[in-house]
Design a protein that fits this description.
50% of the residues lie in helices and 16% in strands. It is an alpha+beta fold. Helix 3 crosses helix 4. The chain is globular and about 55 Å long.
């Protein structure tokens, strides 16, 4: 997680004080691949130079990162932008929930056998997911649709993409870990909680879920497949 001084916080406020930049940032987060200034310009009806200035401003404060995309016809690679690797969190005054969560995970890890701890983490995650679904759907008992779940996850800071969802199956790709610091230390428990939460949000049993890719295993994303 990025720790910000007052000057950096002011720069971040300046970035998000502009409605166009907020829209561009959301667009980049939702994009399945890095985007170029020309693509952003076309999407928002801007001159390419203006779009590039907005993108570079967000690179300066760590919200976006720069990469290169090879052109099919060869020549100089295109400069493209994607979400930055740093998780930015602003809480005033500072709260120590992350420290407390780490201590509780250590307690669970030290006092429970690993299989039982993982099962408990899934149960807690499913309860949390069900709670989210009830809240997001005004108390309805059924789980969220895949589209509704993905919308909630994006609002919560996940870089997530939905594939399918209309043929009885849905695949959800998550390109970042919002619990990264804790997951690096307790991957089995944190990932089990996350899997359970997704199942709870969608209202499906844990047996209806399969995970084929994992950020903690070195993949570029976590891929979750659900039988709805």
């Amino acid at each position: 997680m990025a720790h910000m001084d007052v000057a950096h916080l002011d720069r971040l406020g300046d970035v998000f004080g502009d409605g166009t930049r907020r829209g561009i940032y959301r667009h980049v987060l939702a994009a399945e691949a890095p985007v170029s200034a020309a693509e952003v310009a076309a999407e928002f009806g801007l001159h390419r130079t203006v779009a590039r200035a907005h993108l570079e401003r967000m690179v300066e404060v760590g919200l976006l990162q720069v990469g290169l995309r090879r052109r099919p016809t060869g020549g100089r690679p295109a400069k493209v932008y994607s979400a930055g690797n740093e998780r930015v969190e602003i809480v005033v005054p500072a709260r120590r929930y992350e420290v407390l969560a780490g201590l509780l995970l250590r307690l669970v890890s030290d006092t429970m056998a690993q299989p039982a701890a993982v099962e408990a983490a899934i149960d807690v995650g499913m309860a949390r997911g069900s709670e989210v679904a009830r809240s997001a759907s005004a108390g309805a008992a059924a789980g969220l649709s895949p589209e509704e779940a993905v919308a909630w996850l994006r609002e919560a800071g996940y870089r997530v993409h939905l594939r399918g969802g209309s043929n009885g199956f849905a695949t959800v790709d998550v390109a970042n870990c919002v619990y990264k610091e804790l997951a690096l230390e307790y991957p089995d428990l944190v990932c089990a909680f996350d899997r359970g939460m997704l199942c709870g949000m969608l209202g499906v049993a844990r047996e209806a879920h399969a995970q084929t890719h994992s950020l903690m295993a070195g993949d570029e994303f976590c891929r979750h497949r659900f039988h709805l």
